[in-house]
TrEMBL record:
Belongs to the precorrin methyltransferase family. Keywords: Cobalamin biosynthesis, Methyltransferase, S-adenosyl-L-methionine, Transferase. GO terms for biological process: cobalamin biosynthetic process; methylation. GO terms for molecular function: precorrin-4 C11-methyltransferase activity. InterPro entries: 4pyrrol_Mease, 4pyrrol_Methylase_sf, 4pyrrole_Mease_sub1, 4pyrrole_Mease_sub2, Cbl_synth_CobM/CibF, Siro_Cobalamin_biosynth, Uropor_MeTrfase_CS. This is Precorrin-4 C(11)-methyltransferase. Signal peptide: none annotated.
Length: 249
């Protein structure tokens, strides 16, 4: 058997990849984060599949389910919201499976940051304006940030910053980024990206905290800060330039 860590996408059920949907349809067991993964995706599972909502499960309980499926010879779809490579707590599960010598694979998905950029109709990387995107979060009581990865440090280069899991800490985000980005820097918050209840907030760094509080956004949101959000005057990329040499093969 194999455990498949599948990125379910940012919220809309049809944003799962074709590979993810096909893998889901072939697994006899599905563990899913019920608080984040759209239930419509469960219709892709086989009719007789064992479905386990892990929203209230701890790591030991999740691991026990995976090991039980392994002992029974069943493939497992482990559905995670977004993409497994970004703040998904997959690493600790893979470490447990490595120790138990249980095989697993990872099926990538659409991350919330990509869905947010699509909703904003903005390309995070714009020629001559910004070519770097930083995906990060802020420290909280549960998990501290490693040394050197605080916003005050990451913001020094002025790159576009995309923050997950940070809406309730928006005041701190603004305070730490203002010295590097300036009050007039474009900022945006997308809550529930790609879902019917999606909410988009646009503004500048000095006003985004007030807007977020007025909208009562506390979770399931992506904060984006950077000059590329408002870029209008920039050079066309070299990729499609008529001056670029193109050789037919």
């Amino acid at each position: 058997m194999t455990v498949y860590f599948i990125g379910a996408g940012p919220g809309a059920a049809d944003l799962i990849t074709v590979r993810g949907a096909r893998t889901l349809a072939a697994c006899q067991v599905c563990l899913y984060a019920g608080s984040l993964v759209p239930r419509e995706l469960l219709a892709e599972c086989p009719p007789d599949a064992r479905l386990v909502d892990t929203a209230r499960s701890d790591l030991d309980e999740i691991t026990a389910e995976l090991l039980r499926a392994h002992e029974q010879g069943h493939d497992v779809a482990r559905l995670h919201s977004g993409d497994p490579s970004v703040f998904s707590a997959v690493a600790e599960q893979m470490r447990r499976l490595d120790a138990a010598q249980v095989p697993y694979e990872v099926v990538p998905g659409v991350p919330a940051s990509a869905a947010a950029a699509a909703s904003l109709k903005r390309e995070p990387t714009v020629p001559t304006v910004g070519q770097t995107v930083i995906l990060t979060r802020v420290a909280n009581r549960a998990t501290a940030m490693p040394e050197g990865e605080g916003l005050a440090t990451l913001g020094r280069g002025g790159a576009l910053i995309v923050l997950h899991l940070a809406a309730r800490y928006v005041d701190r985000v603004v305070a730490e980024l203002l010295p590097h980005y300036g009050a007039d820097c474009p900022a945006a918050v997308v809550a529930y990206a790609s879902r019917p209840e999606e909410l988009i907030i646009r503004g500048t760094l000095d006003e985004i905290a007030r807007q977020v509080k007025e909208a009562d956004v506390l979770r399931t949101a992506v904060i984006t800060v950077g000059r590329t959000l408002g870029a209008e005057q920039f050079r066309d990329s070299h990729l499609y330039s008529p001056e670029r040499e193109r050789h037919l093969r």
